[in-house]
Design goal:
It is built from 15 helices and four strands. It has about 325 residues and is an alpha/beta fold. The relative contact order is 0.12. The protein has a four-stranded parallel beta sheet with strand order 2-1-3-4, sandwiched between helices.
Length: about 325
C-alpha cells in the first residue's frame, strides 16, 4: 500500500506548509539529478531564501537509489512540479536545442524547471577566471607559470567551429554520425607542458581542423544550415572564447581542465618544496616545514568540485534571473 507521501507533489507540500505555525518559513522542495548536484544547487538557491521561504534540496526517488538524468526526473516528477516543488537540472544541450526535442521543451518551457544554461555543474566548477585561485587553494603557491584564463579562452576559440558542428548534428538528427564522444575525442588532451602550453593548443587546433574538413565533406547541406545556427548560438550569448562552458561537462573536467591543472599544481608544489629546502636552517626544520606544507595541500580535483567562484559567468546570470523571477511570482501569491 502506498503512503500519502509517496505521491508527493507541489500541492501536497503547499498544504503541509499551511499546517505550519504562523510566521514559519514555507518549504520549497528542489529536486536534483544526483548527489553531486546537491552542494551546487544548495549554494545557488540559498541566495534566494528569505524570511518567508527556504529550499530543501534532495533527490527525486524515495524508493530507490536511481539518480539518473533529466528523463528520470521527468518520469518521477511529471506534472507534480509547482510553486512548492521545483526541479533543478543540468542544461546539457537542451537549452541550445531551443525546444526541438521533447526533453528540450520540458527543460526550457516548464516554469518550475531550472537549468544551468552552461552544459552542467562541472562547467561552472571549471570557470576559467577561477582556475588560478583553484591552483592556489590546492598548492598554497601563487606563482602561475602561465595565464590559465587566457589559455582557456584560446582553447575555446579553437574548438568553437567544431562545437557548432556538434550542436548542428544534434539539432538536425545527425548525431549518430558526429556524436558527442567523437567531439570529445577531438578536443580532449591528456598532458601539457606548463612551460610550453601553446604546443597543446596547436595539437588541438590540428585535430579540430581535420574534423571540420571531414564534416564539410560528409554534410554538404551544412553549407546552408550551419551559419544560421552559429548566429543563433551567438545570439543566445555564447561566444567563441567561452565555448568550454557549453561543451560536455565531464569531458571538460576530466579531459581538459584536470590535464591542464595537474601538471601546473605539480610544478607549484615542487617549487614550494625546493624553497622550503633552500631556506631551512637544519634538517629538523626542513622535515617539519615539508610535513606541514604537505598536510596543508589539497587534491586539485577536490578544490575544483568545491569551487563556487562562478557567479560572474554569463550563464549563471541567466540562471539567477530565472530564480529571481520565480521568487517574485511567489511573493505575489497570497
Amino acid at each position: 500500500m502506498k503512503r500519502l507521501q509517496d505521491n508527493l507533489n507541489s500541492q501536497y507540500i503547499a498544504y503541509a506548509n499551511r499546517l505550519r505555525p504562523n510566521g514559519a518559513k514555507q518549504r520549497i522542495v528542489a529536486y536534483v539529478e544526483s548527489y553531486d548536484d546537491v552542494f551546487f544547487w544548495r549554494n545557488v538557491l540559498q541566495e534566494f531564501e528569505d524570511d518567508k521561504h527556504y529550499f530543501e534540496v534532495m533527490l527525486p526517488s524515495r524508493n530507490s537509489l536511481s539518480k539518473g538524468k533529466k528523463s528520470v526526473l521527468m518520469n518521477t516528477l511529471g506534472n507534480n512540479l509547482g510553486a512548492c516543488m521545483i526541479a533543478c537540472v543540468d542544461a546539457d544541450y537542451d537549452w541550445l536545442m531551443s525546444g526541438v526535442t521533447p526533453v528540450s521543451r520540458f527543460v526550457i518551457e516548464n516554469p518550475y524547471v531550472f537549468h544551468t544554461y552552461a552544459y552542467a555543474i562541472e562547467n561552472y566548477q571549471c570557470y576559467a577566471p577561477s582556475l588560478h585561485s583553484v591552483c592556489v587553494m590546492s598548492t598554497l603557491n601563487d606563482k602561475m607559470p602561465f595565464d590559465l584564463e587566457a589559455f582557456m579562452s584560446e582553447y575555446s576559440a579553437i574548438i568553437w567551429p567544431l562545437f557548432v558542428w556538434n550542436v548542428w548534428a544534434y539539432r538536425y538528427g545527425r548525431f549518430k554520425e558526429f556524436c558527442m564522444s567523437q567531439f570529445a575525442d577531438t578536443v580532449s588532451f591528456h598532458d601539457i607542458n606548463p612551460m610550453h602550453p601553446e604546443r597543446t593548443l596547436e595539437e588541438v587546433r590540428r585535430r579540430v581542423n581535420r574534423s571540420i574538413a571531414m564534416l564539410h565533406r560528409r554534410f554538404p547541406e551544412g553549407k546552408k544550415t550551419y551559419p544560421p545556427l552559429r548566429e543563433e548560438l551567438l545570439g543566445k550569448g555564447l561566444t567563441p572564447e567561452t565555448t568550454y562552458l557549453y561543451m560536455q561537462g565531464h569531458t571538460l573536467f576530466d579531459n581538459v581542465v584536470m590535464p591542464l591543472l595537474s601538471p601546473v599544481c605539480l610544478m607549484l608544489r615542487r617549487e614550494r618544496e625546493r624553497e622550503i629546502t633552500r631556506l631551512a636552517m637544519h634538517q629538523t626544520q626542513k622535515q617539519n616545514e615539508l610535513s606541514g606544507y604537505q598536510h596543508s595541500q589539497a587534491p586539485v580535483d577536490e578544490m575544483l568540485r568545491k569551487n563556487t567562484a562562478f557567479r560572474n559567468s554569463a550563464p549563471y546570470q541567466l540562471l539567477r534571473e530565472d530564480i529571481s523571477r520565480f521568487m517574485s511570482e511567489l511573493g505575489r501569491v497570497k
